[in-house]
Amino acid sequence: MLRLRQRRTLTLRAPESPGAAAHVSAASGLVRVGGWLHVIADDSLALASFPLQGDAPGQLVRLLPGELPPEHRERKARKPDFEALCLLGALTGAPRGALLAVPSGSTPVRVRGALVPLEAEGSPGGAVREVDFQPLYAQLERELGPLNIEGAAVTGTRLRLLNRGNGDAGTDAVVDLDLDRVLRALEAGRPALPDVVRTVRRWELGRAGPVRLSFTDASPLPDGRVVFTAAAEDTRDAYADGAVTGSAVGVLAPDGTPVFLDGVDAKVKLEGVDARVESGRIHLLLVSDADDPTRAAPLFEAVLEGVAG
Known about the structure:
Blueprint: E1 5-9, E2 27-33, E3 36-41, E4 46-51, E5 59-62, H1 72-78, E6 82-88, E7 98-103, E8 112-117, E9 129-132, H2 134-144, E10 149-155, E11 158-163, E12 172-178, H3 179-188, E13 197-203, E14 207-208, E15 211-212, E16 214-220, E17 226-234, E18 243-252, E19 258-263, E20 270-278, E21 281-288, E22 298-304
Antiparallel strand pairs: 1-22, 2-3, 3-4, 4-5, 6-7, 7-8, 8-9, 10-11, 11-12, 12-13, 14-15, 16-17, 17-18, 18-19, 20-21, 21-22
């Protein structure tokens, strides 16, 4: 059983919109770059960036234009549903690397992502660009059925996506894209087309109690492995929320095969992970989503025992 230790909560300098709470609540992905920790939320139009050390409040960077309604049901219907955050290397327009905010694709309005250039020290810098995932997601939906992309990580020459298969009828899958073709599309400002798809493999991750565990995020390791989080949420599909019976952390081999899985010692819905190898051990930062806009999301830390770094 993996022990979680809460490090801080994700408070903000200012709310995203007037009258909203000054915190991130529905944290869904995170990436550490230099001295910064970047977090996306599935109910937001902004990226939140926090100092890696200490508990100073974070600052927001707008990813998409417009405003989301405050009422929960309408907001849920209109949100872009950013579910994964991925670190990319240098590319045209982002010579110091960039963050790719990835939407879930779980409804027709949830296909807009964003590319965020970074400064040398890891903070956001430069103009944010919208990224259209619709052509790619249309192809993946033909192969997998209903989509809910929740993890993204660069591993070798591939951009690896994890599809979350909510409910007993859902499909958990590891989707490998040709990284070079994806980067060329991003540099050209055009959508990635179906020809970027290399492999699609379906997996079953087991259960937490009576509920299936499903992928919720991904973070790469230097040797080509990928650390992933999974949650067991009692819901029939990728749209509805449900009771969470547990979460787990696992590892994919370089070829995408799950080779390790262990539950965590708290009943939380883990939605984001950043993994680093330090002194031969895999150290994790993790965020969870309480599905409650009045509560600030926590940032946890843990060490992945039983897996070599």
